[in-house]
Amino acid sequence: MRLALDRIGHAFLGRTVLEGCDLLLANGEIVALVGPSGCGKTTLLQIAAGLIDPLRGRVRRDYRRHAMVFQEPRLMPWLTAGENIAYGLASLDLPRRRRREIAGVHARLVGLEPADLDKYPAELSGGMRQRVAVARALAVEPEVVFFDEPFTAVDVGLRRALQDLVMRMAGDGPSGQGFSGLFVTHDLAEAVRLADRLAILSARARGIVEIRAVPGRRAARGDRDVFEIVQSWSREEAFAELVDGEGRHVP
Ligand SMILES: Nc1ncnc2c1ncn2[C@@H]1O[C@H](COP(=O)(O)OP(=O)(O)OP(=O)(O)O)[C@@H](O)[C@H]1O
């Protein structure tokens, strides 16, 4: 077990957003938090990551290092791509050359060219900036990664490539050590594609209404499997706030 949420409750300005949320995140596991806009996914993720103190319940963490990937890359504009990727490594007491090597390995993993490493964020496309953000998160070899709709703003091809990378690295990073992931998305197909389990949140119920395992092994799930699971689950009550009866996302 890497992370446990016990009876988490939270409110903003007296309005309850979450009540009685329980969740466990195992070693190497990816759990997707899914639900409609405003149901509290980001709040629960931030509580899990320690960015918000919950009003009720407790978070148990069994890891040393975590990283976060947000919807927007949040790079430092005055650092090059390579320096951004290496930024988190500064606290790890590694020689400068080793930091540069690690940054290079992770830049390659996300599909950046060596020449991109010397560019500043303003000189990169949106997709490249998000690749840098993913490389920066994974370079510190975190045991847990918190993802908050990280691929919503990138185009379809890159989204798939980054999802594949997350799945691969969660099982087995470059040094053989994977991470556990908590992954916020309102895209059911994305959740089914890359998660081991879904925690389904509802705005009405103020929290997690169901935790459900995705059939089959994550790495072995093909496009057809994902399509069929999404089709069949979209008709269920648990997803009513998330997708319409045809499997389309409610805006
Ligand atoms: N800092 C805050 N102050 C006041 N209300 C907040 C704050 N942060 C979130 N909320 C409210 O709490 C509720 C849950 O927000 P949250 O961002 O966790 O939802 P979400 O499921 O991640 O939504 P989305 O999919 O749109 O990002 C929303 O009604 C939101 O307006």
UniProtKB/TrEMBL annotation:
Keywords from the UniProt entry: ATP-binding, Nucleotide-binding, Transport
Name this protein carries in UniProt: ATP-binding cassette domain-containing protein
Keyword ATP-binding part of the UniProt annotation: yes
GO molecular-function term, one example from the UniProt record: ATP binding
Database matches in Pfam families: ABC_tran
Family: Belongs to the ABC transporter superfamily.
Ranges where the ABC transporter domain occurs: 3-228
InterPro entries: AAA+_ATPase, ABC_transporter-like_ATP-bd, ABC_transporter-like_CS, ABC_transporter_ATP-bind, P-loop_NTPase
